[in-house]
Write a structure and sequence with these properties.
Elements lengths: L9 E6 L11 E3 L9 E9 L2 E2 L5 E5 L4 E10 L5 E12 L5 E3 L13 E3 L2 E4 L3 E10 L7 E15 L2 E15 L4 E2 L1 E11 L8 E11 L5 E11 L4 E12 L4 E11 L3 E13 L8 E2 L2 E9 L2 H46 L1
Parallel strand pairs: 1-13, 5-13, 14-21
Antiparallel strand pairs: 2-3, 3-4, 3-6, 6-11, 7-8, 7-10, 7-12, 9-11, 12-13, 15-16, 16-19, 17-18, 17-20, 20-22
Protein name: DUF916 domain-containing protein
Keywords: Membrane, Signal, Transmembrane, Transmembrane helix
């Protein structure tokens, strides 16, 4: 166990970049009050001879297959350091960044396939290559089983124990039937009226995007709104990024230019694109989800009622004026005839 389970000890885990760039960003920790200062180190995929430039390890393996990979741990500090080596299941954070389970959470998937020595001592400004073994269970389900491997240093800050770690992805794919699939769960569409009754409003679409397949995908989604029985249509596109199998992410988009005229149908089209080695026989097809809302355009109806009322009021006033004018003309004629008879 890497971290103490003592009830008196609070534990904090600091995880540095797991999806490390080609030139890995060093992690910085201060494991002791030594005047040597802060400890920095990097971890990279490697061959037996040293770092090989890969961002992470990505392998497609058969059930029961055993392979050996390597990691390079480089101590950039001025003193020797002891690094704890560990592997764990990988996941994506809410912001879409790759991470691995902390030491106090047991792995159940790809992290259990990796075996590495528990620790290593690396001298000042020294790089050591460490082998690790990947053993695929014979009953491994086809598809992706993401994991991560890291080198960490424990330090103390009063009663708080801090684990600082740096690592990289180990993307493991078991061979077999590979399927890329997405689903939109909890799809809702809320109409937002414009304050100006002469301008259209917008539809706010929200849903949970879930990877229901068995491989990681680049998930892309498009949304459209149709009203007036399809005569008027508005579209919007959303790029949601990487999703691991079983993973989900909240998605929302706002589609403007919608009048909200009675029946409004919102459709979401999801398109998965397999990341990594797709291989032969990979199935990836778009999926759709729909929701229909019946919207009463109260604002426009109010404006229409006011316009109709004004029309009838104006027409009534015109008729009243015409009748009054006719009456005045009739009276003038009668008065004229009466005056003419009086003169005779």
């Amino acid at each position: 166990m890497i971290l103490s389970r003592s009830a008196r000890t609070a534990v904090m885990v600091l995880t540095a970049v797991l999806a490390a760039p080609l030139a890995p960003t060093p992690a910085v920790a201060d494991p002791s009050p030594s005047p040597a200062g802060k400890l920095t180190w990097t971890v990279q995929p490697a061959t037996e001879s040293g770092p090989d430039g890969r961002r992470w390890v990505e392998r497609t393996l058969d059930p029961g297959q055993v392979v050996t990979e390597h990691m390079a741990v480089r101590n950039l500090g001025k003193i020797p350091a002891v690094f704890v080596l560990s592997a764990a299941d990988g996941y994506l954070t809410d912001k879409g960044r790759f991470n691995m389970l902390p030491a106090d959470q047991p792995s159940k998937d790809g992290g259990t396939w990796i075996a590495v020595q528990p620790q290593i001592t690396v001298g000042a400004n020294e790089t050591k290559v460490v082998p690790f073994t990947i053993t695929v269970p014979r009953d491994a389900a086809p598809g992706d089983h993401p994991a991560g491997i890291a080198a960490s240093v424990l330090s103390s800050n009063g009663t708080v124990q801090v684990e600082s770690r740096v690592g990289f992805r180990v993307m493991l794919r078991a061979s077999g039937s590979v399927q890329a699939a997405l689903a939109a769960r909890g799809l809702t569409a809320r109409y937002e009226r414009s304050w100006n009754p002469l301008r259209p409003g917008a539809v706010h679409v929200t849903y949970t995007l879930v990877n229901t397949g068995n491989v990681r995908v680049d998930a892309r989604a498009g949304a459209s709104v149709a009203e007036l029985f399809g005569a008027h249509r508005r579209d919007a596109g959303v790029e949601t990024g990487e999703l691991l199998p079983g993973g989900g992410r909240e998605a929302d988009t706002r589609i403007g230019g919608v009048w909200g005229l009675v029946r409004v149908r919102t459709t979401v089209v999801l398109t998965p694109s397999v990341l990594g080695d797709a291989g032969a026989g990979t199935r990836a097809s778009p999926a759709t989800a729909e929701v229909t809302a019946w919207i009463v355009p109260w604002t426009q109806l109010f404006v229409l009622v006011v316009l109709v009322a004004l029309f009838f009021v104006q027409r009534t006033l015109r008729r009243t004026r015409r009748r009054r004018l006719t009456r005045l003309l009739d009276e003038a004629r009668r008065e004229g005839r009466a005056s003419a008879l009086a003169v005779k």
